[in-house]
Write a structure and sequence with these properties.
Layout: H1 2-18, H2 20-49, E1 61-68, E2 76-78, E3 80-81, H3 83-92, E4 99-109, E5 118-124, H4 128-132, E6 138-139, E7 155-158, H5 160-167, E8 177-180, E9 183-190, E10 205-208, E11 231-236, H6 243-259, E12 271-276, H7 288-321, H8 323-331, H9 336-373, H10 386-411, H11 416-421, H12 433-464, E13 475-481, H13 490-504, E14 510-516, E15 530-531, E16 534-535, H14 536-539, E17 545-549, H15 553-557, E18 561-564, E19 576-580, H16 581-587, E20 597-598, E21 608-614, E22 629-633, H17 642-645, E23 650-655, H18 660-674, E24 679-684, H19 685-690, H20 694-728, H21 730-738, H22 743-776, H23 788-814, H24 818-823
Parallel strand pairs: 5-10, 7-9, 17-22, 19-21
Antiparallel strand pairs: 1-2, 1-11, 1-12, 3-11, 4-5, 4-11, 6-9, 7-10, 8-9, 13-23, 13-24, 14-23, 15-16, 18-21, 19-22, 20-21
């Protein structure tokens, strides 16, 4: 057996060396097909399949999900819950030591200053560790006694990565204290190497949940709040436990508990569900990056199919030219399955060579896809590991077998007498329906991928055309942040920001300077208002967003006035308010909003008259439903709002075209002077929102790249198939020329045969593209997946390229010398 395999390998290598051009072409095609699939799998594996390292029996660990009924847009699942909800669910768990609660924060710094390394910290109950089955590599984990609410111990567990990179893997660190933000924590242990938590984003340190800081703006303890959905819960079940039954029981119990606190924000229609420890496999709405990843996996598979079809076509054509050789072997007594094994060995050897190159492609492609699709994730491991290498080799084996077995079976069963009679005529006039079917497949699948690519490009263009209300290209905004516990009172900050604004007002390149409570498209704030004898909260589904601003805010942000006028931002001016178009439609759908009253201090309080309506600006997302917003002058706020909204700390500047960078530098300098211990954040609105275009930009780039790759491979396949076909029909073309066929006749014959097959593929591909469009509909914006213009354009492109690919071998066929062709017989 081993000797036979060795003989097949030697024969395969000699055969491949005799045809270096074909060998290289096949290797390149297989490398591309296998490589893009391996790179895509490296992303899909991290998102959907790979369980956290170090977790014992991860299949028995579940993340808990809550379905809330009061979410905008309808009920939806979220992994977030309140602490009172957790208390109810914990009481139903069979073993309370195997259910944990966590909260993640990404704004903690080593050494208590923002100059120190920024960490991802997980506040977790002491049950987190036994629930996951994790064991420390150094020291211990914190205990339940150190995790008592209102009596938390200042202890911390470090990740192996943090311990090595920031503390030089010092084993004596256990028992010593480290400063994180303004607090000191005693290091009690180091997590095992490779364990970085349950999320895709790695955790650097773990602190008892009971030490979670109380938000300064909250009046009630966070542990009693029914409105703070900020915690995530995980639990370990017994093997084969019915988690569906547990979810139903937890739902009923939690609903009963929420009805008792409905007036405090409890949701009496809440539902409980359990999901995998892997977040992406939970019942929540799939993130756009994950949607792109799964669709990209399908696209990568299509590229592999196109490449494999091309390889099969090349091998079929090559096997046709070798029919005389194979016939002689059969006539001399070689068994058919021996020949199949020998021919398949050639393809497997090609696949093995391609797999080696595909591993490098997967390493580079995996890193590229990480940067594109998961740019917010801080990876601590390499994009290539044993799982990806194994997948690459397995895929190469499967692709090699599929691509090799079909030509081998066909080539090993020739009609001996005809094959021997054909002599040196390499393949004679033999036609292969299979080869035509493969060309149809290539053309059809390239239509599908190119259609997807064009749809993504058009979606990106449509998103970029969306008017967000503000002028992002010239709006520069700034604020100052401080080390924890070092920020001055808001009144002091606002006064200093105001002084900076005055100094900037006449600086070159600055057209308008304003201050605001909220930066454009960042944060939100609400206040209770009375309209028409009632509060808007009772009358309407959502509360309007309040922003207190100075008078030049609208000029600084490019927010256009649609009706009326802007308010007077001076003390003692009339009580005035400016609303956006969405608020006008929400509150006064059948009335004229101009002159209407909004009250803030009760039904009999001062009337703030609506004096102007501005266009509806986006609140925090480029694509969102219109959000009602209104604007109050900082200098003339209602009494109840002055303390909270009367100290604007956001600086907003409109820069002259081309001077944005210089203005940003001037703002940074001014804020550094005003706040020597602060950290100015100066941002162009354009840059700030740029990340929101990323899903469409990434989708357009990846699908265009994949589509272009598939298109090139498909056209190359059409060309190579036609070229081989022409070379096999040299005798036929010689006879046609000899009996009087002209150049146009030969061209028409060859091009017509090629285009008929391609057009059939285009028709099939258009139908497939329409059917597959539903898979990417959620990723598109303002364009139908079955857009006829797109389908027609792509079809014309493929047919045009196929025409060029067939004209080249057709012209060669038309120039055949009949004497030379007939002598070859």
């Amino acid at each position: 057996m081993i000797v036979g395999i060795e003989q097949d390998a030697r024969f395969a290598w000699r055969s491949l060396r005799r045809n270096p051009a074909v060998t290289a072409l096949i290797v390149v095609m297989l490398t591309l097909g296998i490589g893009v699939n391996a790179a895509t799998f490296s992303i899909l594996d991290r998102i959907y399949f790979r369980t956290p390292t170090g977790v014992v029996d991860p299949g028995n660990v579940h993340q808990l999900w809550i379905r809330l009924s009061h979410m905008e847009g309808g009920p939806q699942y979220t992994p977030a819950m309140t602490y009172p909800m957790y208390r109810v669910i914990r009481g139903l768990w069979s073993d309370t030591n195997e259910i944990a609660l966590t909260n993640r924060t990404s704004n903690v710094h080593v050494g208590g200053t923002r100059r120190g390394a920024k960490l991802d910290v997980l506040f977790a109950t002491a049950t987190y560790w036994p629930m996951l089955g994790v064991r420390p590599q150094l020291g211990r984990f914190y205990s339940a006694d150190e995790d008592r609410v209102r009596q938390a111990a200042p202890v911390v567990v470090l990740s192996d990565h943090l311990w090595r990179t920031q503390f030089a893997a010092d084993p004596s660190l256990v028992g010593k204290s480290v400063k994180l933000d303004e607090n000191r924590y005693t290091v009690v242990g180091v997590a095992p190497r490779g364990f970085t938590g349950t999320d895709l984003e790695p955790i650097d340190a773990w602190i008892p949940l009971a030490a979670y800081p109380q938000p300064p703006w909250m009046k009630e303890p966070i542990w009693d709040s029914h409105g703070m959905y900020i915690f995530h819960s995980f639990g370990r079940s017994a093997p084969n436990e019915d988690m569906g039954m547990f979810a139903r029981r937890a739902t009923q119990t939690l609903r009963n508990a929420m009805r008792a606190v409905a007036d405090k924000g409890g949701d009496s229609l809440v539902m409980v569900a359990t999901g995998s420890i892997i977040y992406a496999r939970g019942p929540g709405e799939e993130q756009q990056e994950n949607l792109i990843s799964t669709r990209l996996g399908a696209v990568a598979l299509i590229v592999l199919v196109i490449a494999a079809a091309n390889v099969i076509n090349l091998l079929l054509a090559r096997a046709t030219r070798r029919r005389r050789e194979i016939a002689v072997r059969l006539a001399l007594g070689a068994g058919r399955w021996r020949l199949v094994r020998m021919l398949t060995a050639e393809t497997l050897l090609l696949a093995l060579i391609a797999a080696t190159a595909a591993v490098l492609t997967a390493w580079w492609g995996g890193a590229t896809l990480r940067a594109l699709l998961l740019s917010d994730v801080r990876f601590v491991d390499a994009p290539l590991d044993g799982r990806i290498v194994f997948f690459t080799l397995a895929l190469a084996l499967v692709a090699g077998l599929i691509a090799g077995i079909v030509p081998a079976l066909q080539a090993s069963n020739p009609v001996l007498t005809r094959a021997l009679k054909e002599g040196s005529r390499d393949g004679g006039t033999h036609r292969s329906p299979l080869r035509s079917a493969l060309v149809v497949t290539q053309a059809a699948l390239s239509i599908v991928l190119l259609t997807g690519a064009v749809l993504f490009v058009e979606s990106l263009r449509n998103v970029q055309r969306v008017d967000i209300g503000y002028d992002p290209s010239r709006t520069v905004m700034a604020w100052v942040s401080f080390d924890a516990g070092q920020d001055p009172p808001l009144a002091v900050q606002a006064a200093q920001i105001g002084a900076v604004a005055e100094r900037l007002r006449n600086a070159p390149g600055i057209q308008a300077v304003a201050r605001a409570n909220l930066a454009p498209m960042r944060g939100f704030s609400v206040a209770r208002i009375w309209i028409g004898g009632d509060t808007s909260l009772r009358k309407k589904k959502s509360y309007p967003i309040l922003n207190s601003v100075t008078g030049e805010f609208f000029a600084a942000t490019g927010l256009k006035l649609l009706r009326g006028s802007l308010f007077d931002d001076v003390p003692g001016a009339p009580a005035q308010v400016v609303i956006n178009q969405a608020m006008a439609e929400q509150q006064w759908p059948n009335e004229d909003p101009m002159g209407q009253c909004i009250r803030f201090d009760g039904l009999t309080s001062r009337c703030y008259a609506v004096v102007g309506i501005v266009e509806t600006a986006r609140r925090d997302a480029i694509i969102e439903d219109p959000v009602p917003q209104y604007y109050l002058p900082v200098a003339n706020l209602p009494p109840t709002l002055r303390e909270e909204f009367g100290h604007p700390t956001v600086l907003v500047v409109r820069a002259a075209a081309g001077s944005e960078a210089r203005v940003a530098a001037e703002m940074t300098k001014g804020l550094h002077t005003a706040f020597p211990s602060g950290y100015p954040d100066v941002k162009l609105l354009r840059t700030e929102i740029d990340s929101q275009y990323r899903p469409w930009r990434v989708g357009a780039a990846l699908f265009t790249g994949m589509g272009a790759l598939a298109f090139v491979v498909a056209i190359l396949g059409i060309y190579s198939t036609m070229s081989y076909g022409v070379s096999q029909r040299t005798h036929e073309f010689g006879i046609r020329v000899a009996v009087g066929a002209g150049l146009a006749d030969i061209l028409s014959l060859v091009v017509g045969e090629g285009l008929r097959v391609v057009i059939a593929g285009v028709v099939v591909g258009a139908a497939l593209a329409v059917a597959a469009g539903r898979m990417i509909a959620a990723l598109l914006y303002d364009i139908a997946p079955s857009n006829p213009v797109v389908l027609a354009s792509v079809s014309a492109l493929v047919i045009g390229a196929a025409l060029v690919a067939t004209l080249i071998p057709a012209s060669r066929a038309a120039r055949v010398d009949p004497i030379t062709a007939l002598r070859a017989d």
